[in-house]
Amino acid sequence: MNITAPHSDTISLIGNTPLVRLQGPSDAAGCEIYGKCEYANPGASVKDRAALWIIRDAEERGELKPGGTVVEGTAGNTGIGIALVANARGYKTIIVMPDNQSQEKMDTLRALGAELVLVPPTKFADCNHFVHTSRRLAEETEGAIWANQFDNTANRKAHIEGTAPELWEQLEGRIDGFTCAAGTGGTIAGVGMALKELDENVVIALTDPHGAALYNYYANGELKAEGSSVAEGIGQGRITGNLEGAPIDTQFRISDEEGLEWVRRLLREEGLCLGLSSGINVAGAVALGKQLVADGRKDARVATILCDTGFRYLSSLYNADWLRSKDLPVFDWLGQD
């Protein structure tokens, strides 16, 4: 039994998350599919990593001073990570979030002591978009910094220095493919850049939900969105600062229904309660695994990100009425009546 030594502080609990072989996806792909359990971070999502690196970077540059405030626009998980790290460092937090995100995220942010500002969901070009609103609030608040997770490359640095080396060590230096969706782009760009430095033959694939524009960008060179998705925190319509230079080799577009099927199976068959972004990532990993096998790499190993816990979506993804309202299939154990 491998038991680690005690951690020196709570911040050091971020990262070094477990990696698990996913049986159903591995069988479906015909090769090894692994999930990085980012829900094991203190804030229960992959975004804890970006939160820590962004705050630490601002401290090192002298922008964030004792007693200061961190302001950010987020779909929720980055805000939760920022609130936890800020609490541990002695800062205040202001989080701007679209009002169509899960109630659990809103309740969690308030419980963590963050000041929560809700705005209507709108396109990025709108000056009232949550990102632009958070920037203005940071400018108007004394002693505040704007985290700017979309274009602040301290975000992807968290994955260059943390997530990718962890994956490399956990898979003993043998990884054939990596895929995940992009929200800010920090995870796929950072992991992709670092893995390519270790082995240029690792295939980096974007897994894009419907309603996002990146699939068409990497496939056809045009930022063009098609369809829609209820997935929170993923999907992007522009090339963010974190996505610039991302080494994307191939791309897959995954529907909510396909992602939900893996959410259902991973819970019922393997005991993992996950959010829809994780289900979409796993569907993408299966698609990449099948592609690698078809290319003759029958012993391929593919890794993806299990972004957050399904407990954050009890009022939506795991609610029969909500699923019906979105014309999505209802998990059989929730009842069909």
UniProtKB/TrEMBL annotation:
Keywords: Amino-acid biosynthesis, Pyridoxal phosphate, Transferase, Transit peptide. SUPFAM superfamilies: Tryptophan synthase beta subunit-like PLP-dependent enzymes (SSF53686). Its cofactor is pyridoxal 5'-phosphate. GO terms for molecular function: transferase activity, transferring alkyl or aryl (other than methyl) groups. One of its GO terms (biological process) is cysteine biosynthetic process from serine. It comes from the Bacteria. Gene3D superfamilies: 3.40.50.1100. Residues 13-308 form the Tryptophan synthase beta chain-like PALP domain. Pathway: Amino-acid biosynthesis. The keyword Glycosyltransferase does not apply. This is Cysteine synthase. It comes from Erythrobacter litoralis (strain HTCC2594).
